[in-house]
């Protein structure tokens, strides 16, 4: 396998999956996306890879792959890249972490948000009381839940607020704020 093109990870890079293994004999590889809807993988023709752990045999640091084609296959994505000519080269990518620039994500609809954009936003209630900051989101099946981290005396605690219109009044990405119908003692 020819060495992969070294590259600097873009400032807005988001980790979107990892390479599981080679797929077929013509250099295709299987990617396990971190999202149930892997559109970010399809929207970018430049993927950035980092080894899963230090000391990887195949490459070091960050490298860039020029993607020829990517498509869904069962619960994963299969892809081919210009620099990956055969199965051996694809096998050498096993375990690599896949990043794409956030700027290449498809635009979200007016009431849709990428989870990565919600992490770190301040959460306040209708009265302006600060409830904390979004640390994570959980998918519970029927709905998504905001995991809010806040300080109480000398402890860091968390509260969970369903991310549904009954409780979420407004998401203001430029202001980095979410306004909710929720009280601190819930």
Kindly describe this structure:
- The chain has helices at residues 39-43, 87-91, 115-118; strands at 5-6, 13-23, 28-33, 46-50, 63-73, 76-81, 97-101, 122-125, 130-139, 144-152, 155-162, 168-172, 177-180.
- With 186 residues, the protein is mainly beta.
- The protein folds into 2 domains: 5-104, Elongation Factor Tu (Ef-tu), domain 3 (Beta Barrel); 115-180, PRC-barrel domain (SH3 type barrels), CATH 2.30.30.
- The chain has a 6-stranded antiparallel beta barrel.
- It is elongated, with a radius of gyration of 20 Å.
CATH topology label of the largest domain: Elongation Factor Tu (Ef-tu), domain 3
Q: Major sheet: order of its strands?
A: 2-3-6-5-4-7
Query: Mind telling me the CATH class of the largest domain?
Result: Mainly Beta
At CATH level 2, the architecture of the largest domain is Beta Barrel
Shape category:
elongated
Count of individual beta strands:
13
Portion in strands:
over 45%
Overall average pLDDT: 92
**End-to-end C-alpha gap:** 57 Å
Number of helices: 3
Task: Report the major sheet.
Answer: 6 strands, antiparallel, barrel
Oligomer: single chain
CATH superfamily of the largest domain: RimM
Give the SSE order as H and E letters.
Answer: EEEHEEEHEHEEEEEE
Q: Give the low-confidence spans.
A: none
Instruction: Classify the helix fraction into a percent range.
Output: under 10%
* Overall structural domain count: 2
